[in-house]
Amino acid sequence: MEGKNPAAHSAPGQQDVARGSTTNGLPVDASLAPTLEDAHAPRQSAIVNLRVVILSLVSIALAAVAALVAQALTRLIGLVTNLSFYGRFSFDFTSPAYNHLGAWVIVVPVIGGVIVGLMARYGSAAIRGHGIPEAMEQILLGGSRIPPRVTLLKPVSAAIAIGMGGPFGAEGPIIATGGALGSLVGQLMKITADERKTLLSAGAAAGMAATFGSPISAVLLAVELLLFEYRTRSIIPVALACATAAGIRIAFVGTTPIFAMPAVPHPDGLALVMYLILGAIVGVASVYVTRAVYAVEDAFDHLPIHWMWWPAIGAIAVGVIGYFSPHTLGVGYDNIENIISGSIAGRAVFFLFVLKFISWAISLGSGTSGGTLAPLFTIGGGLGSVLGAAVIAAFPHIGMDVRLAALVGMAAMFAGASRALLASVVFAFETTRQPAGLLPLLGGCTCAYLISALMMRTTIMTEKIARRGARVVVDYTVDYLDQVLVKDAASRKVVALRADDTVESVRSWLESRVEGTGHQGFPVLDKQGDLVGVLTRRDLFDPNAPTSVPLRDVLKRPPAIVYQDNSVREAADHMVSEDVGRLPVVTRDAPAKVVGWLTRSDMLSAHKRRLDAERNAEQAIEIRLIRLERA
After folding, report:
1. Fold designation for 22-30+485-606
2. Which of 7, 51, 192, 268 has its CA 20 to 30 A from that of 450?
3. What architecture is domain 269-467?
4. Does residue 116 have a pLDDT over 60?
5. Cβ neighbours of residue 585 under 8 Å, at least 6 residues apart?
6. Rounded to an integer, what distance in angstroms lies between the CA atom of residue 608 and that of residue 613?
7. pTM of the predicted model, to two decimals?
């Protein structure tokens, strides 16, 4: 295209170019071609800019606050636990499993459920639920705007629910609170919805990093569940926030991993295969765990009483189960550590994770304030431990380790339920520091991910959002149009109009329906072949337009152009911002010389080439399979 000047059609009565004519009341020098100052060119996208630096600084400050909130919430849960189950005033984070309340232990979670229900009804209903799905919903449907009151009510309600025996982890409410803080800061600043989403994700990921000391998996969780993208402008603030939060956590609790476990041996080939199979089995379980949670939620929806009382009803099951199995009460981080370290195994683990699942599913389905990560880790770790022990008992020569089986089960359950594959693998490593587990974790979690994706379209994080009519995209690909240059998509054959032709003569030519008259828009060139504007058929057939004037006098604004080295995505965005359906293509060396013509149809044709290539590849595979069958 470059170097070829399009020829205008041979409309009759071409007029000399006259100086001093006007367009919109402004003097026009017809000998002057449009320059970059008056032509509207697309803005070339930058990888980062000053706004990214500002967002990064804000994210660091936000992460510091989120890390402090995480420490405060942990101590508040400890205070509520100590007051409710032990009758003492202490902020020490402790388990309610060792209480001596007897049957009165059933009442404590119910009281917590009543309080949470009242807070949800008269404070904000947004405090109900898991934490992460609600943040995802606000990102997808609410412009990343979380009501400010949630910033206070969510952690307080969670501290009450968990501290009074709710079978949840502290991480869900902390993640939700960090996200609410980020959203609040974003609403106070004059930033875009995408930038507000980055702050929300930075706050949420910082909350996870501050809870578990797992900054890398927190970044991956943000990418896989919150950002819905992997772009430089968003990943930098989130990563800095996670690093900051993890650093502050070290200042409070040190560098010891949250789930300490003894070193495990590296698995051999046969053991690795068994871990893959274990991951697949846990993947199946993750599907039914998700379905069970939402089945319970649906059952509560049919109760003939106000939802304010549902958390108290769900808490009855929590209290009853907690009476028979006290370790199902509360956060249960000690349960996770005991399972993956091999301190408990066999029948004890089986009853623990089954009863924990029942208690958690009923309580979460009731709409109380809680989280999903720690319960999923307990359920998955327990299932992995039981399956690993069964394989070891039946086939001792395989070389599996029950602790590593529990670790794979823990991560695979989260990978299958949430589809946060990379976050699950790295999280298990960061929280245990077991390098021997990386390969089994990658294989097991991937198998769980695969099985879950085959059996279930949504996840435990997205099912609620999907039910409300939102489309949740989980596959992130580079925009195809961002990979195609304008010069490769634009039409080389350009039908142009002469600036000195009259409107009447051009109308006559268009009505003749000869070749080239079927286009909807045309570039307008002066005698030197330089671009002076663009006219559409609507402009030319406007009944209010005078017919005896030259085309240059009909032009209403400087032309919107696109460079041939712009991407088609940049061109599409430029079309939207300029409210046009076609763009003259020019070069940067000669921005007045039209070398091509880009329309919306040309952009669709670029997509068609991609689809044709994929279809041809699929057909080639089918042909090979048919030949193999015949052979």
Report:
1. CBS-domain (3.10.580)
2. 268
3. Orthogonal Bundle (1.10)
4. yes
5. 1, 486, 487, 490, 561, 562, 563, 564, 594, 595, 596, 597, 598
6. 8
7. 0.80
Residue 349 has pLDDT above 90, yes or no: yes
Widest distance between CA atoms in the chain: 103
User: To 10 degrees, what angle do helices 50-81 and 193-212 make?
Assistant: 40
Residue listed under structure tokens 């039981």:
386
Count CB neighbours of 631 within 10 A. Answer: 5
Euclidean distance between CA atoms 66 and 56, whole angstroms: 15
50-253: CATH number: 1.10.3080.10
- By CB atoms closer than 10 A (0-12, 13-18, 19+), residue 354 is middle
Cα separation, 426 vs 439, whole angstroms = 11
Residue 324, SS3? helix
User: What's the CA gap between 328 and 351, in Å, rounded?
Assistant: 10
Are the C-beta atoms of residues 393 and 352 closer than 8 Å to each other?
no
Yes or no: say if 17 and 500 are a contact pair by the CB < 8 Å rule. yes
**What does the DSSP 8-state code read for residue 498?**
E
> Is the pLDDT score of 177 beyond 80?
yes
pLDDT of residue 354: 95
Write a three-state SS string for 350-416: HHHHHHHHHHHHHHHHCCCECCCHHHHHHHHHHHHHHHHHHHHHHCHHHCCCHHHHHHHHHHHHHHH
Contact present, 413 and 286 (Cβ < 8 Å): yes
Average pLDDT over residues 607-627: 74
**Which of 497, 499, 498, 501 is closest to 548 using CA atoms?**
501
Supply the DSSP string of 408-474, one letter for each residue.
HHHHHHHHHHH--HHHHHHHHHHHH--GGGHHHHHHHHHHHHHHHHHH-SS-TTTHHHHHTT-----
The secondary structure element, H or E, covering residue 586 is strand 582-586
Please write down the HEC assignment for all residues of 522-553.
EEEECCCCEEEEEEEHHHHCCCCCCCCCEHHH
Ranges of CATH 1.10.3080.10 domains, the chain:
50-253, 269-467
